[in-house]
């Protein structure tokens, strides 16, 4: 045992522990300091470990001579070190983990301010008004703010790596020192055993690094997961939903625990094959209705009933495979036209060509090289305005058999629908009511007369 660079105590580990001098007192002092950590990992203290190991060795090796047991000193000493290593690595892991989690959260929050996609989408307008330089400067400022959190998160990794490497070097030094001490005090030490202990010590740094990172990953086990894709004892029929009757019964939801409700006690009924337009100001909960129907957010209260089945009780695959969503900005995926139309290969060519004809795209696809097998070169090629207008016409003519919920960002899109979810009445009746929220939205759009004319034609046509 060293103190201030001098050997103050030496001998066999067993004898030094029995003498209860400097080494014994040092281990007891450490054991008292690490009691809480030992309790957390439910492992015995260092002194208890020694007493247990010593009893087991005596029990198993009563007939073995003293000499082989002397050669076990360095190995037994190293074997008792994991308690110390666990304490050090746990402390490093805790500091690094909490610091890094905070930095990553800050980085994600700041990253939300970088409007890269929105800038690309409106680049034509930006250039037309000669505002390119202003947007470049704004994005550079936001990127600098993002780097203020991103760079410290990388530094946190380096902080942890340096301490783990130092700890690994300390273990290698301790193993080497114990080997030298053992060779000085005992002439018959096994060279192979010394080499084995050093080879294991050399790999400790990598093992510690992996262990700490795995400790951090374990925390994700406690995160709530989505419902199973299929619940065998509660599966809908193959033809569900037959009618498309949707009932919201006192439904409430939130995006995560601890936040306020985004939908509070919503109750309404959508009749089979009815076309419903959903309008409202930003933050009114329009998108939350869609997310709740697909169970991207779970219910905090109430229920959603589709054709007599509570959707919270069925598997996510059974639910989402029976519903269809057309996003606000449809995007073509990288691959072929056929893959974009039928990614799961559940339709034949006749149905696919019929769908293209309904979408007014049959002539265009027929002129492509390879037709259905033509490659989509630009993976982010969005549908243009003209094609979107054709899709809206197709929805009105081809989807008469389906129940339709439409989140309207343009009021003319839903002016001829059956009902509008503002006060939940027909568009014509809501426009006649001067106190209607829907009427106020139409007036603010500067298209009130045009919308009123469309709603009147809808009433007279029926």
Features:
462 residues, alpha+beta, Rossmann fold, 2 domains, four-stranded antiparallel sheet, three-stranded parallel sheet
Protein described:
- The protein is an alpha+beta fold and 462 residues long.
- It has two domains: 2-222, no CATH class; 246-461, Rossmann fold (3-Layer(aba) Sandwich), CATH 3.40.50.300.
- The chain is 54% helix and 10% strand.
- It contains 21 helices and eleven strands.
- The protein has helices at 13-19, 22-33, 35-40, 46-60, 66-70, 73-79, 82-111, 116-121, 123-128, 132-185, 191-202, 204-218, 286-293, 316-320, 337-341, 349-358, 362-366, 385-398, 427-432, 437-444, 448-461; strands spanning 2-3, 6-7, 246-253, 263-270, 275-278, 299-306, 309-310, 335-336, 375-376, 404-407, 419-421.
- It has a four-stranded antiparallel sheet, with helices on one face.
- A hairpin with a 2-residue loop joins strand 6 and strand 7 (309-310).
- Helix 10 (132-185) runs antiparallel to helix 11.
- Keywords: ATP-binding, Membrane, Nucleotide-binding, Repeat, Transmembrane, Transmembrane helix, Transport.
- This is 5702_t:CDS:1.
- Pfam families: ABC_membrane (PF00664), ABC_tran (PF00005).
Q: Give the strand order of the largest sheet, numbering strands 1, 2, ... along the chain.
A: 4-3-6-7
User: What is the helical fraction, as a range of percent?
Assistant: 40-55%
Structural class: alpha+beta
N-C termini distance: 99 Å
Q: Report the major sheet.
A: 4 strands, antiparallel
Low-confidence stretches: 33-95
Share of β-strand residues: 5-15%
Q: How many helices in DSSP terms?
A: 21
Q: Number of domains in the coordinates?
A: 2
How many strand units?
11
Shape: elongated
Mean pLDDT: 75
Oligomer: single chain
Query: Which value, in Å, is the CA radius of gyration?
Result: 35 Å
